[in-house]
Write a structure and sequence with these properties.
Number of helices: 10
Oligomer: single chain
Largest sheet: 3 strands, mixed
Mean pLDDT: 89
Strand order of the largest sheet: 2-1-3
Strand content: 15-25%
Number of domains: 2
Number of strands: 14
Length: 318
């Protein structure tokens, strides 16, 4: 009897420890297929490893889509992300006559999302996904890149600056109201599709002393006065009590999700409430997913967030 119990326990141990290890290897190892489209070489500066790597554009785009957008999003939203990421990348590539990454002159692009685009390797991507979804999720990424092969966004025949953000909070913004330069295809549009975003709104509390420190003023000087807002409520210019800065910088200094922000000042604290996440120019990622779930296609998503553009195909060097 004891031998039978021991045998059962041994089998259970094998099932619990050995089998999952085999499955993990098959899901996250070389058995997972590579992205076969967009074979053109792109030089990528990995800001985490501090290394320059050359890889096929398709492989790079798979890593961008996996890093920049939740894989649980609708396929049409992931396809929109692939088209936008491809456009953004080719517009920077030195092989296409462009200047590359200005922080790393030897590279076409870097993996720092605050400067270029986020990127993750296939192995790191699947390691962060639910155990039994790894294979199907990776194939979904491949499908998004493959079904949009060579597709890019142009305006009047030229590649656009395909900027994007997480959650617009009801409306995207005109480029000049965020960065000061007016771009014809980066126009403010109403967006009723991102309200389900977990980043739609947030409230954070900061002490008066901390706010003053972050804004580079003394507590005696601190006097936040908004001088100009967009039609949707984002700060364009604000006076800190010492200097006038743009809303994007105000948001950055305070570590807020959005410059669409209001606040309550109490005796020793500020309570900041933001709507949206990101700079709000170009494609709203959660809005793209919301559109896709209502039946909109990748082309309709692109047309929504970039005014007067066309989706076309391009070869590197054209």
């Amino acid at each position: 009897m004891l031998k039978k119990i021991g045998l059962v326990l041994l089998v259970m141990l094998v099932l619990l420890l050995v089998l999952p290890a085999i499955i993990v290897k098959s899901c996250s190892g070389k058995i997972l297929p590579d992205v076969k489209v967009d074979p053109y070489e792109v030089s990528v500066w990995n800001h985490k490893t501090q290394e320059l790597t050359t890889m096929p554009l398709g492989e790079y785009l798979g890593g961008v889509v996996a890093a920049e957008m939740p894989v649980q999003f609708h396929l049409e939203a992931l396809k929109a992300q692939a088209v936008v990421a491809r456009t953004y990348t080719i517009a920077k590539m030195r092989a296409n006559g462009k200047g590359g990454c200005d922080r790393h002159p030897e590279a076409d692009i870097c993996t720092d999302h605050t400067h270029c685009q986020a990127w993750t390797s296939k192995e790191d991507a699947v390691a962060n996904w639910p155990f039994f979804r790894q294979r199907s999720y990776w194939r979904k990424i491949i499908q998004a890149v493959s079904e949009t092969q060579d597709q890019v966004i142009t305006y009047q025949g030229k590649l656009i600056d395909a900027v994007y953000h997480s959650t617009c909070g009801g409306s995207t913004e005109n480029s000049e109201e965020v960065w000061s330069n007016q771009v014809s295809y980066l126009r403010s549009v109403q967006c009723e599709f991102c309200s389900s975003s977990p980043r739609y709104t947030e409230t954070v509390q900061l002490s008066v002393a901390r706010v003053a420190e972050k804004l580079g003023v003394s507590t005696a000087e601190l006097n936040i006065n908004v001088l100009e807002r967009t039609a949707s409520g984002r700060i364009i210019k604000v006076n800190t009590g010492k200097e006038i800065i743009r809303g994007l910088e105000f948001r950055s200094r305070l570590g807020l999700r959005s410059s669409k922000v209001s606040w309550l000042q109490e005796e020793t604290d500020y309570s900041f409430t933001t709507v949206g996440y990101g700079h709000a120019v170009g494609m709203c990622q959660y809005g793209a997913d919301g559109m896709a779930r209502q039946g909109y296609t990748v082309l309709e998503i692109v047309d929504k967030y970039y005014t007067g553009v066309q989706v076309t195909t391009v070869q590197i060097g054209e």
